[in-house]
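Quick one:
INPUT:
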């Protein structure tokens, strides 16, 4: 036993280090908050009114050529898309998308502060940038307002100060979108605008392209397969990589749906045991 009154030097060192770490963390949070607030004010004036774009939302769709008797004789499009309303999306598909992309979608105000703090902290590491932590609302902002800034010659650009600037603009737009539109409207923008495979845009076009049925009629396994494509449509499209689509459907989407309480574990296991049946084929 150490002599009374002398204490334990090792314990004092640990307490001193912990105290210094806490103080440093508080200063870092204060600095990040101040920098973010300043940037928000600096960039807010440069962003247009979101209502001008979203109140007049008219995305590129499929143009169909009809004969005099109404029979379709041809169709062409730059982006293969069929715009639908919120109620035209199967509840299972809505749940699959929300569970996978943004579990707190119904409760947050457009941003997830905790995830943003983690993303910012990671952005200070060498070779890293402020990425991730995007809510569905942020993704709508990116898709409809910042796509050109995020892409450079067809490649996702996210390095340096420009990456920080883009992210701050995205946050501002997300807040503006949440102030003006309901969750149903925001989700509908997202469901109609997202790329879901080569030349396929929106959940209705995806449902018809992959399963030859409207989005409102999708089964659980079909809804989960489409939700699996959102992350990287060029790689996870079942037309391109059915095995990876199947793996993400079973191991990520259905698991997240169970975690969020949308389906039971038994329902998820049952759906995971079924193949991805694409139009005219079975995988």
């Amino acid at each position: 036993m150490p002599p009374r009154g002398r204490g334990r030097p090792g314990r004092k060192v640990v307490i001193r280090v912990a105290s210094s770490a806490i103080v440093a963390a508080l200063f870092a949070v204060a600095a990040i908050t101040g920098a973010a607030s300043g940037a928000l004010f600096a960039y807010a004036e440069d962003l247009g009114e979101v209502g001008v774009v979203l109140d007049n939302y008219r995305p590129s769709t499929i143009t169909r050529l009809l004969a005099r008797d109404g029979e379709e004789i041809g169709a062409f499009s730059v982006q293969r898309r069929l715009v639908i309303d919120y109620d035209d999306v199967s509840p299972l598909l809505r749940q699959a998308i929300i569970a996978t992309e943004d579990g707190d979608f119904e409760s947050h105000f457009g941003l997830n502060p905790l995830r943003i703090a983690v993303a910012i902290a990671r952005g200070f590491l060498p070779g890293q940038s402020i990425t991730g932590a995007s809510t569905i609302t942020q993704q709508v902002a990116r898709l409809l307002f910042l796509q050109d800034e995020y892409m450079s010659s067809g490649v996702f650009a996210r390095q340096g100060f420009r990456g920080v600037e883009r992210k701050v603009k995205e946050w501002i737009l997300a807040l503006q979108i949440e102030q003006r539109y309901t969750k149903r409207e925001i989700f509908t923008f997202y469901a109609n605008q997202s790329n879901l495979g080569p030349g396929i845009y929106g959940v209705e076009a995806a449902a018809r392209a992959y399963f030859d049925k409207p989005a409102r009629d999708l089964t659980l396994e079909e809804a989960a397969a489409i939700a699996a494509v959102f992350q990287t449509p060029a790689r996870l499209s079942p037309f391109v990589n059915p095995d990876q689509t199947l793996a993400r459907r079973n191991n990520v989407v259905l698991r997240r749906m169970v975690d969020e309480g949308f389906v039971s574990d038994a329902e998820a296991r049952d759906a995971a045991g079924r193949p991805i049946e694409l139009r005219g084929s079975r995988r």
